[in-house]
Amino acid sequence: FAIGFAAVAAAASAAPAHGQQRARVLSEEPRVEFMPGILDPGQVDALRDLAKSIGFDAVDESTGATNGGDQLCVLNISYPPPLGDAAAAAEPGWAAARALVQSAAAWARLPESAAAPPVVTRWEPWTRGSRLNRTGLLHLDGRLRPRHRRTVLVYLSGNAGEDENRAGVGGVLPRAVEEGLTVFPCVETDDMGEAEATRRRKMCARAHRQVRYAHDKLRTLHEEGLALPPSKQLAFLEEHPELLKLPRVQADGSRPTDWQWTAAHDAVPASAGAEGVGELFQLAEDMCRGIVGGLRVAPASGAALMMEAASPKLVQDWSLWHTGCSPSGGHVRRWTVQLFFHGAVPKSRRKEAKLEAPADSDCIAASSV
């Protein structure tokens, strides 16, 4: 559960690096930490400028490189950075990206080599005429990442101060900072009643089971199709177009699960083998709009969250469903950088695979530094 900030100050768990402030624990179980200044203002500007110079790709629900947002750009950094052009190595954007990976890896207590390339994401301001929901993609960070272990989410926009984020643990933030929040509908907070906490735990656990159930059904159907003679497989696929939603097997033999929950999922009733979940997506939407409380973190430029997304055996934590909220109309875009750290594949999951892994985003930039 999320702990009050009177205790948070004494519960710091990560030593500061490069002049950063010490991380604060927002929630013990699931583990969520907040660091006020992992980037300085100059590094924030450099990363935004770098992403703008490269360009952005559009994001939809099938995009795997990021979770949420409207546009993304993947910064392809070599690990470790190769020796080369001194001028290029000093370029502020790439220097800031490398420094961020180093600081995030130290905070996550994982090697830099375990980090995927940083992903810069932009969110357009929300208006009722453009879309109905403030909330982005409600997800677990293991979505399409079977080896995912920890996430560091860095804010490149926002002016919320530390006092606002203290108020935001379990409470409703002042309206002035209810822009571009990150909300965790399944995390219990100090001021949450037991009945509400129990309701949310059940809803979130059922969502996890339902996504797993749907994934397993597709895998079983896929195996049924593979058992057919090649001459009948195309007809089988035409009869079952839902198989196109099954993620591809990755190079290490693992098949990702698409851990996302949408408004359409809320509308799915209970069925044989799967329980009804309730309105989990609507709960996240209400948190984005400030209608209900829970763990809601306001963005502060240069600050970051670190989430313990999975156990050492890479079992995803079902209580870490979360999403970002679009800023309202009249406000500037929401900017973030996401860093996804993977863990070692347990021996029980290792197997041979001949299928190649999915290609990266077209917006991957080849760094020469």
Taking pLDDT < 50 over at least 5 consecutive residues as the criterion, the unreliable ranges are 3-19, 167-172, 351-369
Determine the oligomeric state from the structure: single chain
**Total number of β-strand segments?**
14
Q: How confident is the prediction overall: mean pLDDT?
A: 78
State the helical fraction. Answer: 25-40%
What is the number of helical segments per DSSP (H or I, 4+ residues)? 9
The biggest beta sheet, please? 9 strands, mixed
Task: Give the CA-based shape.
Answer: globular
Element layout with pairings:
Elements: H1 5-8, E1 24-27, E2 32-35, H2 41-54, E3 57-58, E4 71-76, H3 86-89, H4 92-108, E5 119-123, E6 138-139, E7 148-155, H5 162-167, E8 182-184, H6 194-226, H7 230-239, E9 260-261, H8 263-266, H9 280-288, E10 295-297, E11 304-308, E12 323-324, E13 334-342, E14 365-366
Parallel strand pairs: 4-14
Antiparallel strand pairs: 1-2, 2-11, 3-4, 4-5, 5-13, 6-9, 7-11, 7-13, 8-10, 8-12
